[in-house]
TrEMBL record:
Pfam families: MrpF_PhaF. It is a multi-pass membrane protein. GO terms for cellular component: plasma membrane. It comes from Psychroflexus maritimus. This is Cation:proton antiporter. The keyword Transmembrane applies. The chain crosses the membrane at residues 6-24, 36-56, 62-84. GO terms for molecular function: sodium:proton antiporter activity. It is found in: Cell membrane. Keywords: Antiport, Cell membrane, Ion transport, Membrane, Transmembrane, Transmembrane helix, Transport.
Length: 92
């Protein structure tokens, strides 16, 4: 079993299944925090899929896209944490 078989038959199905489970969590999450964490995890899984696609097709330019997505996800999480902090101060 070489690297491409491992990526095709083991890693991609696991990532697909995990993205499905996380997306379900995103839909039924009881709170906004659960939904934001699920959205961040969906973006992280997407970054993994992009990285695998880049490895399989030998196109390293897609890793730049994955890096930009990681930066956007990080900034979104920081912005949400800032929003929660401001909301908690307003409630007090």
């Amino acid at each position: 079993m070489n690297l491409h078989d491992y990526l095709y038959y083991i890693i991609l199905p696991i990532l697909s299944l995990s993205s499905l489970v996380v997306f379900i969590r995103f839909l039924i999450g009881p709170g906004i925090v659960d939904r934001v964490v699920a959205l961040d995890l969906v973006i992280t899984i997407g970054i993994g899929i992009i990285a695998i696609y880049s490895i399989i097709n030998d196109k390293p330019t897609f890793l730049d896209i994955a890096t930009i997505l990681a930066l956007i996800a990080f900034l979104g999480t920081v912005a949400f944490a800032f929003y929660l902090e401001k909301r908690n101060k307003k409630d007090e």
